[in-house]
Every structure is written in C-alpha cells, then in structure tokens.
Write a structure and sequence with these properties.
Strand content: 15-25%
CATH class of the largest domain: Alpha Beta
Largest sheet: 8 strands, mixed
Distance between the termini: 25 Å
Order of helices and strands: HHEHEEEHEHEHHEHEEHEHEHEHEHEHHH
CATH superfamily of the largest domain: Glycogen Phosphorylase B
Strand order of the largest sheet: 3-4-2-1-5-6-7-8
Length: about 425
C-alpha cells in the first residue's frame, strides 16, 4: 500500500486513497463522532507517547473525526509549559485543554478530574493514554460513571520490564485495586504491537485487547548509502531501559577497529543518569569517538536520520519503538534490541538486525553491519519498504476510526 504525506483537512483524499468508503458507509452515523484523548503530559521530554498522540490527532482529523485532548501543563520534572489553563486552545488542528499538575508523582491534576466528571458525557469515546497516573484514573472513572465507553493505551507499562522496574511493589498494589478494574471495564485495551499484547495478557486480567500500530509521518524517500556519513546514531530518550550503557561498552571494543566511524547520541534524560553515562564514555577512552547531541527535533533530527550510516536502539524493552520506525522510514539500516516490539516483524522483513541486550551481542552485530556496506544497503532498503507498508500515518487513522465505530456499534465487543 503506497504511503503519502498526510495533510490536515484532506479527509476525502485519505478515504479514497484507502478505498474504505464502504467501511464509512457502514458506520455513516459515526462520521461526526467526538473522541476525547487523555494523557498525563504532551512534553517532548517524555519521548514516544508525547510524539504519538499529536500524530493520532492529525490522523483522526484527516479521517473526519472530531478529536480533542486534555492533559496537564507538565513540561518535565519541576517544569510547567506555560499554557493557559482550562481553556480550549487550537493546537495541531484540534482543541486541547491543559490543567495544572499539582504533584510530580502520579501527575495529580484535580482540575482535570473535575473537568472530566463534568464534560465527559459530551463525547462518544474516551481514549486514555497511560496507566499509573491520576489523569488516566480520573478520566476512566468519569467515563465509566457517565456510561461513555473508554479505551486504554497502557504505553508498555504492563510488560515484565515495566511492572518490575521503578516502584514495583507500589505498582503491584495499585494494579490490583485501581488499574486492574479499569482494564477489565474498558471497551478496549489498545496495544501497539502483538508483543506488547502478549506480555500484558500474561498478567491474567480479563481485557478486550486490540492491536492498532502507531503511524508516523515518514520522509518521502531514503538517502542512498553513498550519501551517508560514517555515523552510528542512537536517537531516543536516555533511560536505563534503553541500554545505552550496553551500547557504549560495545562501542568501546569497536572504536579502534573502525576509526572512521563515530557514535552520535541524540536524546536527553535524567541529569544524573546522563552524567553517569558520559563519565563512563570517558573511562572507556572513547573521548571524541562519541558525540553527545542532546535532544534534537524537527529538521535537525531529520538531517541526522538522513545522513547517518547506521541506527542502533538496544533497549531491554519498548512497547513499540517510534524512533526505530522513523529510522527505518529514512532508509537507515537498524540494529534493534530483541525487546523492541517492532523489531521482530522488521527482522522478518529484512529491515533490521536483532541483538540481545548484552555487550558482546551488540558488538558482534554492530561489527557485522559496519564491515559490510552491501548488507547495510540491503537492510536499509528493506527497512524503508517495511516502514512505509506497515506504519504510514494514514493506516493508523483508518484503524482507529474502525475501532471506535465497532465500539459504538457493538458495545462490549470489539
């Protein structure tokens, strides 16, 4: 299926391009459905989730769905984004409302909860993004009380890594009394990959699970290998689960072997963790063989994706892997950790090389890519083809529309 860049307001073009007028006819009375999205934060410092929701807004807008979003004014730990609170603001082509974050922990926002209890009855479906957050709990409970169906997207926290790291005991107790009942009552639990769904279902909570992959705005075409620089690019949030430590140790055993290549680290995270990683790079003697870019966005990010030679994301766990799909869409040969959800399907299509998270495996697989230009070219071309076919933005809009329509047509079934 060919992909084209999605523009705001081209609903008819989208519908015709995917030949799904028959689907729309079957659900004609839902064409003006109103969807409310709820997410703890839209700050880019939180990585993938905050990147995905604006893309969902735009895909639904193009599909003729009236989508609105409520969130907090969070802009990272201890920071606020300065938006006017509680007012309807036109952003990204949709209405967004921001409410004060009163506590860092659990993103507690009483104002958001009060608004949800008062207004949620005016929407057809509530789509909740995240668990273990006050915003999610407040919105889902308000929807349940008003008889409005709600969908929960867990953002990967129901997998083994998510449930056993960071406040594991608190999560276990909260899951039993709060999140578990919300999942059981949800009209659908939205996973973005089969791998994420399989891990979550292992928790034993009955749920109506559905897989709707994320969609991305992919570049028009990849850059040929002859135009790329000898750069190994890590582009993602810096967090322990991303396993940047393993990548640095692996690179420490490869830098001398490939003197023309450099490792570029793009992203940010908690200051103490970033300092620790940079100190580790110095101890490994990497010096100028690692370039720390910080968080990059927009045209700068696209330039690094367009010009780098290899992309690496050796994460222990990723419920999807937005940055990996962006890299594949740019035609980059990718080395992905086995815990990156999109990696398994991408590997089957020849679009990436899989690696275990240990230092030796990363080093071995990276050596294979750096020493074989033909393999890089072949993998990059397959990556581009795979990303366009499976993760174009238009397909996500169609799948979400169909999910909401099925929920409204057949409550309790998906």
């Amino acid at each position: 299926m060919a992909s084209e860049t999605l523009k705001l307001g081209n609903a008819e073009k989208l519908k015709q391009g995917f030949a799904w007028n028959a689907t729309l006819s079957a659900f004609h009375h839902f064409e003006k459905m109103r969807i409310l999205h709820v997410i703890p934060s839209l700050s880019s410092v939180h990585g993938g989730p905050s990147t995905a929701l604006p893309l969902m807004e735009r895909a639904l807008l193009a599909a003729g769905v009236e989508a609105e979003t409520i969130t907090t004014d969070d802009d990272g730990p201890g920071r606020r984004n300065g938006r006017v609170l509680g007012q309807a603001l036109k952003e990204n082509g949709v209405i967004r409302r921001y409410f004060a974050k009163r506590f860092e922990f659990y993103k507690v926002s009483p104002g958001l909860g009060r608004w949800a209890r008062r207004e949620v009855k005016n929407y057809d479906v509530v789509h909740v993004h995240a668990l273990f957050s006050h915003t999610s709990l407040a919105a889902a409970r308000a929807a349940r009380a008003a008889g409005v169906p709600y969908v929960i997207r867990p953002l990967g926290v129901l997998n083994r890594y998510g449930m056993t790291r960071r406040r594991a005991l608190l999560k276990k107790l909260s899951f039993r009394w709060l999140e578990g009942p919300l999942l059981r009552d949800a009209a659908a639990v939205h996973f973005t990959s089969e791998a994420e769904r399989e891990e979550a279902e292992g928790l034993g909570v009955p749920m109506r699970s559905v897989v709707v992959p994320l969609g991305l705005e992919l570049p028009e075409g990849g850059t040929g290998p002859e135009e790329r620089e000898p750069v190994v690019l890590y582009l993602s949030r810096i967090d322990p689960k991303k396993n940047l430590e393993g990548l640095l140790r692996a690179w420490g055993g490869l830098a001398a072997e490939f003197p023309k290549w450099r490792l570029a680290v793009a992203g940010d995270g908690e200051a103490d963790h970033v300092r620790w990683l940079r100190a580790m790079a110095e101890e490994l003697g990497l010096g100028d063989r690692v370039k720390w870019l910080g968080r990059i966005e927009g045209g700068v990010k696209q330039q690094w994706l367009r010009e780098s030679g290899v992309y690496v994301l050796p994460s222990f766990s990723e419920n999807f892997g937005i940055a990996a799909v962006e890299a594949m869409g740019a035609g980059l040969p990718c080395l992905l950790g086995e815990g990156v959800a999109v990696a398994q399907d991408a590997a089957k299509a020849g679009g990436c090389i899989l690696t275990a998270p240990d230092e030796e495996s990363i080093r071995s697989k990276l050596r294979m890519l750096l020493s074989d230009a033909a393999r890089r070219h072949e993998t990059g071309a397959a990556a581009r083809e795979f990303a366009v076919k499976e993760y174009g933005l238009e397909g996500m809009g169609r799948r979400l529309f169909e999910l909401y329509a099925r929920i409204l047509e057949r409550p309790g079934e998906i």
